[in-house]
Amino acid sequence: MTLLVLAPPDDETARMFCEFVAERGHMAVMPQGFDEVCITVTSGRDASHNVDLRVRGERVRGVLHRGIGAPVREGGDAAFAHAEALAVWWSALALWDGPVINGATRQGFLPPLDPLLLAHVPGVTLPPSSLGRPLSAATTAELVNVHRERDGAFLGRGTEAIVPDELLRFTRFDPARVRYVLLVGNQVFDPSEAGGALAAATRSALAPLFHRLRSLGADFCLLVIEPAGEECRLLDVSGLPTHHQFEAIRPQVFQALLDRLLGGPL
Predict the structure, then answer these.
(1) Tag placement on the chain: N or C end, fewer CB within 10 Å?
(2) Which part of the chain is CATH 3.30.470.20?
(3) Sign of the CA dihedral 7, 11, 16, 22?
């Protein structure tokens, strides 16, 4: 039984998961080229399809998908090879009928996790935010997260994130109330709590959001929330959690990933 971990070569979390799987008596391979992988996608005129996915000659049982990173070099053959690899993996993971954590869909190579797309979920709201230039959109008295609007990059908090000639998004938040929630397959964790147990009230309030994320194929993601009465403000969702964010409960998280891959679809 072989698991495939699709991730950039510098993804330390992916490598640590492979080591965890080996300690549990299974094999997880993190391929760095198509010389280790054989992908066969067969499509019929009746819209039927079949995907055979093998790594080092062994049939793959499940896939942990964390992307393929950026091209090694800009332009030329490297960019072309990266685009071809992306197309192959996208079609294979979207059509394969085995378990894929953070699967590819028509909406994206990785699941779409923009909070704006999740704001209609019952019990979920968005925090107050505004767009503007650095000198006019926020005052030094405000506690704000600052993101660059053109690509969503997080720049910092408050005036430490001043960047000239950029349109920025300022999101107000209360750092004393912010909580982190980790969705991992069939389980959810609070990385800040001993043992990772998530409060029952929070679990209940976020149940519709968990259901929506799983329906999008996002079953390994970190949520940043701020409780607001009976609702939760959704500040951010990351589909690429790193081990630093759940170090205290890493064995439980990795076991939940392994159970998801061995157990099949949710």
Answers:
(1) C
(2) 115-124+176-263
(3) positive
Torsion of CA 209, 215, 221, 227, to 10 degrees: 0
Tens-place pLDDT, residues 9-64: 999 999 999 999 999 999 999 998 788 899 998 988 888 889 999 998 899 999 99
Do residues 212 and 113 lie in contact, with contact meaning Cβ atoms separated by under 8 Å? no
Residue 196: which residues within 8 A CB-CB, separation 6 or more?
182, 189, 190, 246, 248, 249, 252, 253
**pLDDT tens-digit readout, 203-240:** 888 999 999 999 999 999 999 999 887 788 998 899 99
8 Å CB contact between 121 and 212: yes
Nearest Cα to Cα of residue 220 among 247, 204, 201, 243: 243
Alpha-carbon span 105 to 15, nearest angstrom: 25
User: Which numeric CATH code is attached to 115-124+176-263?
Assistant: 3.30.470.20
Per-residue pLDDT band at 162 (split at 50, 70, 90):
low
The closest alpha carbon to 173, from 117, 112, 120, 236, belongs to: 236
Q: Is there a contact between 158 and 144 (Cβ–Cβ < 8 Å)?
A: yes
pTM: 0.85
Q: How far is CA 104 from CA 45, 66, 101, 254, in A?
A: 22, 10, 9, 21
Percent of the chain whose predicted confidence (pLDDT) is above 90:
49
